[in-house]
Design a protein that fits this description.
Elements lengths: L1 H23 L2 E10 L2 E2 L6 E2 L7 E6 L2 E6 L7 E4 L1 E8 L3 H4 L11 E10 L4 E10 L1 E8 L1 H6 E11 L2 E5 L7 E5 L3 E10 L5 E9 L4 E10 L13 E7 L4 E7 L5 E4 L1
Parallel strand pairs: 1-9, 10-16
Antiparallel strand pairs: 1-6, 2-3, 4-5, 4-7, 7-8, 8-9, 10-13, 11-12, 11-14, 14-15, 16-17, 17-18, 18-19
Length: 259
């Protein structure tokens, strides 16, 4: 009988220890709201709102990580008391340059850090997302189309992904990660003398900007002996709050001169 009583007491002691461990895991809750900042598109000037339903939301702390589709996420999420970071995005950076094709798409993302979740309390969280990559579009002025054949622009930030704008793709917009250096190369054959022209320029990309590159040529004036000089190409580069005109000198391999 004594042996049975000791076994029961030992079992009760084990349960008591388990209860202490369970009670020691202090739980709180997080309620989340994802806001997506409206984007002003530089081409249409129209305000655009992107649905957050399919945004991927990641909730993480030093000891906890879970990822949700926002529309399927519970209104309140029970988590261990700790300090959290909550991030949200519509697509990953790799998807932003490959989906639905190599021209990519706008990437919206945001993150809120230092969220303190206390035991038995709810911590409301708002994650504000905005466009974090850069858009690039190309326009060929009539001075280019009238005076060059086989004209094109090749644009890239990575040698493995080079996008070509030409007469068939001028309506395209390309998307690149921000803070990278964009290289753009103009090439074409000048009709007057059949000579090829190739000029290279660069620009560091900024988030939430749409850079419009307009390529045009200063038509050369006829001089006193009737000869026509080599053409100059002007690049008018515009983004949301930056305007610059670059003059291209095609001689000696070409160069850009800031006016």
């Amino acid at each position: 009988m004594k042996k049975i009583i000791l076994t029961i007491l030992a079992s009760l002691g084990l349960l008591s220890c388990q209860r202490v461990v369970i009670d020691g895991l202090q739980m709180g809750t997080i309620s989340l709201k994802v806001n997506n900042k409206a984007l002003v598109d530089m081409q249409t000037k129209a305000e655009e709102t992107v649905s957050t339903d399919n945004f991927k939301v990641t909730v993480t702390s030093p000891s906890y990580t879970r990822t949700f589709v926002y529309s399927e996420m519970p209104l309140t999420l029970a988590v261990p008391a700790d300090t959290y970071t909550v991030s949200a995005e519509n697509v990953s950076e790799s998807e932003s340059v490959s989906v639905p094709d190599e021209w990519g798409q706008k990437r919206f993302a945001g993150q809120t850090r230092g969220i303190i979740v206390s035991a038995s309390k709810n911590s409301p969280v708002t994650v504000n997302c905005q466009m974090v990559n850069s858009a690039v579009s190309i326009v060929f002025d009539s001075s280019i189309t009238d005076n060059f054949t086989d004209y094109s622009i090749q644009a890239y930030t990575d040698q493995a992904r080079k996008l070509t704008f030409d007469a068939n793709t001028t309506s395209k917009t390309a998307y690149f990660p921000a803070d990278y250096e964009l290289t753009y190369v103009f090439s074409g054959t000048y009709k007057k003398d059949g000579q090829p022209v190739s000029i290279t320029g660069t620009r560091v990309l900024a988030a939430a900007t749409h850079i419009h590159l307009t390529f045009k040529m200063n038509l050369p004036q006829e001089d006193t002996n009737g000869s026509i000089g080599k053409p100059q190409i002007i690049v008018d580069e515009t983004c949301t709050d930056f305007y610059e005109t670059l003059t291209v000198d095609p001689s000696n391999g070409g160069s850009f001169v800031t006016e």
